[in-house]
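Limitations

Structures in this collection are predictions, not experimental determinations, and the ligand pose is part of the prediction. Treat each record accordingly. The example that follows, with guanosine-5'-monophosphate as the small molecule, is included so readers can see exactly what is and is not provided: the inputs are given verbatim, and the output is the predicted complex.
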Amino acid sequence: MSDCLFCKIIAGDIPSALVHQDDSLVTFKDIHPQAPLHVLIVPRKHIASLNDLSPDDDALVGSMFRRAAALAKEHGYHERGYRTVFNTNREAGQTVFHIHLHLLAGRGLTWPPG
Ligand code: 5GP
Ligand code: ZN
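Predicted complex:
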């Protein structure tokens, strides 16, 4: 999608701190990190929000969570703990309308979230 920030990052038109990429997912550091590890796991396919998922995306979304677990382990946080978050629409604070899974780790994360 031409006016989508994350599509531009995936295309390499806007720089990012790349952490991992494969055929279907790109992972880069959040520009305003909220924890020592804060990365965004983003499908190459443009999907605006969780409200726009179809059954065809089930495997893709599953792979996003498996990537999060792999990265948490790679960074040594798999036993301490980590949080994975999708924000959807206004009250949840979604600001970029291309789905992305936040992976946060490296500090005590409070519950309930704000
Ligand atoms: P949301 O609020 O939609 O759940 O998450 C969007 C995230 O994207 C925010 O945590 C924000 O800091 C991050 N972000 C916004 N613009 C950029 C950018 O240009 N580059 C990177 N790497 N992250 C961004
Ligand atoms: Zn997009």
